[in-house]
Amino acid sequence: MCNLIALTVHCGPGDLILLDKSAHPLTNEAGGTAVLCGAIPYPLDGTRGMFTPDQLAEALVPPSRNRPRARAISVEQTTNTPGGRIWPLEQMRAVCATARQYGLATHMDGARLLNASVATGIPARDYAATFDSAWIDLSKGLGAPVGAVLAGSATFIESAWQWKQRVGGAMRQAGIIAAAGIYALRHHVARLADDHRNAKRLARAIAGAPGLAVDPEGVETNIVRIDVTGPGMSARAFADRLLAEEGVRVSTPGQAVVRAVTHLDVSESDIDVAANAIRAVAERFAASR
Ligand SMILES: *Cc1c(COP(=O)(O)O)cnc(C)c1O
Asked: Which atom of ligand 1 is least distant from the CA of 139?
């Protein structure tokens, strides 16, 4: 809802929102911005969820009467489906500078911004400061049961508040939810480092398992992306067997991609159990060939 509201404040019907091809508003929000705002999410062919100022400029010029009006960019920190990758601050600033040069609004989908901040030591406000709007998720790694916080200028928030009302986001009893969010912000930020350590531990433990490709060096935060490469294996088949035979759940964002996410309910010893399970299933697949 934060992405939907922010992009709807920034854009109107027929406007372009430029974002990476893997970005959440394009791939995971049921086309909400197209339906409710009428804006067109325009995918850029970034790397690991991140695009460059040149790629952005390439999509914007030459201006023409026949083109839809480009109105906003959206940047995902950390990148979700590409595996929890962190946008370098300089690249973010450069992309936003290019966007401003062309008169575009800048939005950050900071669902996991605090993961990036804990991993790099760069304050969340430094990442957010380069955008017109930004939000964080209080659930996900922070562990609150529900909730998110959207930030922007007073004028932006005034409009955002109206859109929140329109899309059914008003809640009279929000205090109890805010309390859990405040608890999460006070107690669950620094410990995101544990999740990052656990994700790395998982990736290292399963690297080299037959039919799986995982890059422990590429694990920057709390997401482990595993490519299922064995002959005849699919992500679905692997995930189904892992659950049926070992009781471990992973998601399957692609035909041959399995995704594991660490969070405050998963301990270091749970990671070892999961790693052994993943290895065991990979070996059984290999043996049955
Ligand atoms: C989780 C997430 C969201 C919000 O998704 P909801 O399912 O609506 O909470 C948005 N962007 C990214 C990158 C996310 O990971």
From this structure: 9
